[in-house]
Every structure is written in structure tokens, then in C-alpha cells.
Model the fold of this input.
Amino acid sequence: MEYIIEMSGITKEFPGVIANDDITLGLRKAEIHALLGENGAGKSTLMSVLFGLYRPDKGIIKKNGDAVNIHGPGDATRLGIGMVHQHFKLVHNFNVLENIILGVETTKNGFLEKDQARERVLELSKQYKLAVNPDDIISDITVGQQQRVEILKMLYRNNEILIFDEPTAVLTPQEIDELMGIMRGLTAEGKSILFITHKLNEIMAVADRCTVLRKGRYVGTVEVSQTTKEELSEMMVGRKVSLQVAKPVRQPGKVILEVSGLTVKNKQSGKNAVDNVSFNVCEGEIVCVAGIEGNGQSELVYALCGMTKADAGSITMNDKNLTGAGIRRRGEEGMAHIPEDRHKHGLILDYNLAYNLVLQSYYSPKFQRAGFLRFNEIYRYADTLIDAYDIRSGKGARTTVRSMSGGNQQKAIVSREIDRDPKLLIAVQPTRGLDVGAIEYIHKQLINQRGKGKGILMVTLELDEALNVSDRILVIYEGRIVADVDAKSVGPQELGLYMSGSRPDGVKKGGGAQ
Done:
């Protein structure tokens, strides 16, 4: 079988960990080839070797049967290889057009020639249904739009081998469907795609073949049409994994969180991003906020957590008014927060894992005495969480968080917030970027917290997660709660209609839709 890309015997070692151990992978022309594995299995490392971000310690890379040397991303680009990274590589104060042409600019007499480039970008965005405004500043557009910019960067460079690293981790269900269509369109035109994902549904829907890695080693390659999700998950984790959430019936207790008439204005437009929202969360209840990205979820969470000031309304927790309280006060009252953007709001990337695990509690008597940190206690505590939550890192508690895989970074945040024993846990996309084994574990943790009488407010873009994990679903559309429904009595189609604003009637149950 002729491969457009063949990686043979690839080995890559970092201090304390063999990320890739003698891995072989073949990509056929015009196929979508999925790369599946747990967090830290070596998927992103292998693709970073192909893209020239890392040099392999051993192994050979061939393109169309000829051995090639890839010393950096420039070499990869010249060979027609492009990559969309899990955490996008965009310059946030540049506009869309400037980011797309960066590194392959055309100039005349020392001046950038943007007009031709703009035409080509608009052409490509129309051809592949990747709607973007070339003049928008990156920091002002949604995460889904930023991903479109990354894909357009590859298309603008005429890349024929496209690497997608967790491309759907930040997308809404509708955007995921669109991306799947785009990927099929790309292969129909002869492009070949390597697709790193944790989501078995997506592999079954779009991939031709799937290669599975486990703990840095090659497990096998299968034809997707001849396998099942259960078989793939067992290959990936090494054991049978429950893909359904076991949730005991439980009656909610007293109200923990009461939100009344909450309004938050958008800083740029001055319009209400959160518009007169009222709801509650009770003890022993998982309430999910579901909606298409950009409908006010982020602003709602920022206001609840004290990261931004509400313009109107009140936030009460256990009968205490926290509307004007700071972040630390809310934490001391029992509020914990798993943030949407783990890099921006969840971690200090250049601190080690131990320090990140005590960011919310370093000032407590357990970790400091007379103003001096008790480092032995901090590292002992970190080791406990690393074991309990299976956080994988090359140097244990002393690992710099920046060097960890995205999924293990997420596990670190989840472990830190749950271990604080909060009364209310606000979990924003808690399983984003996690593999099925880790998702199963996180869902069990949320159900356990529910069983202990904690209140959980979960924000997710995943319809399956909303329906399987939550007791009650609040649908947010254009900043307003348009439905408050029992998770057992609603289906994905009905939920999707509410999310798109097509069902204005709003089912009023539980906390009451506004």
C-alpha cells in the first residue's frame, strides 16, 4: 500500500517520560485518519514530530515513499504539511487576514500586498464555508471563529496533508457538524487528514481508519467501518469503559444558589450579554446551562464567580448576598470554579504542578505558617491529588504545567476545585479535551459531589453531556434563559431548537425560565 505519509519507528523522549515509543503510522492519500488515545498517550507529540516542532530521537518519515528530513515547521510547510494546534497559534492583536498571511506575505517595494491576499482568503472562506471577516481582530472573535482562521492558514498555504489536533474540543454541536462536512470536502479534493480526537462519535462519523496509541505505544490500526465505539474505547484505555452515566435518583435539597434579575452588559457593544436572568441551584442537583457558544454563557459565569461585575440583579449563596463580593470571598463561602479557558483563567503555565494545585488555598494554615510557605506540605498534597486523579506528568509535582498535555492540565484543575470540598461547583466544559476514560472519571466525580449534597452548575456545549449528566437544563439564547427543562423529559432535537431560538415558548419548570 502506497502512503502519502509514513512514519516508521518514531521514538521521542522527554526528561522522565518516553512520549513516543517505536510508533509506526501510515496515511493514505485522500483519507481521514483518526489518531486516538488517552491524555498523555503521545498523540500530539507524534504529530508535532511530523510538523517539525520536535525532532525524533529515532525513526524515519517518508513522503510518497521518499525519506524526508523535517527540521522545523518551515520544512513541513514546504512539504505541504499543515497543522491546527489544540491551543491555537494566533497573534491576538493582529486581524484575521494578517494572521493567515503571516510568514508567507507578498511584498512590493517593501510594502505588504494585502488586496490579493484578501481576495484569496474571501474566496477560500466561501469555497469551504469558513465564514470569517478578514478585518476582525483575533481577540474579538469566538474560539470557533479562531479555529476557522487556523484552517484557512493551512488552505492559504496549499497544504495537502492537514493535521487537526483536537479540532472539536472548543466547538458547538453545530460547528462540529460543519467541520465534519468541511473535512469530507477537503478529502474529496484529494487532501489527506490526520485527525487527533477523543470523541468516538466523531471517529465513527467521519474517519476512514483509526490508529490507537496507549502510554506512548502503538496499539493497532482499524478500519472504522469494521469496529465499534466500545472496541475503540477498550483499545484506548486497556479496559472496558462505560459510555453511559450511572446516576441514582435523588431529590434536590434546599436552594444553594439564587440568581435574580442578573444583567451583564457587553463591554464593546453596550448591549446586555446576560439579560435579566433568574434561576436557582439546589443541594444534590446538577443544573446545566446549555446553548450555542456566544449566547452569554461566559459573561454569566464571570459574573457568578466575581471575575466581572454585574450591572443589575443579585447573586445569593446560602442566604448570603455575594453580588459585590470578590473572588476570594466567594471561594471562602464555598464556591469553586472549573473555568472555560484553562490557560487564561485556570493555571499559571510557568509554575509547576504543585504550585498550581494550591493556587486557591496557599494562604491557608495547612500550606503557610507566619507568611512562609510550607513546601513539604504543598508537595505532599500535590502527590495525593496526582495519585487520586491520575494526573500524568513527566516529573510529578515538579513538572512545569506548560509541558503537560491539555487533558492532564484539565484534570489538575478539576482535582484542585473538587478537593476544596465546595458547596457549589461551577463547572464550565469540565470534560473538554478529555479521553473517554477521563470523561467517565470526571462524570463520576460530579455525580459523587451531587450525592454528597453539593450544588453543581455545569456549562457545556456538548448535548450528550447535558442530557446524560444533568438533572435540569437551562437553555440560554441571546443572554436570556429561554427554557428550564427536566433532563429526563427532553431530547436532543427539542434542546437544539431551544438553543437556536426556534422555540420561543420556553418550558417553565424548576427554577423558572425568564
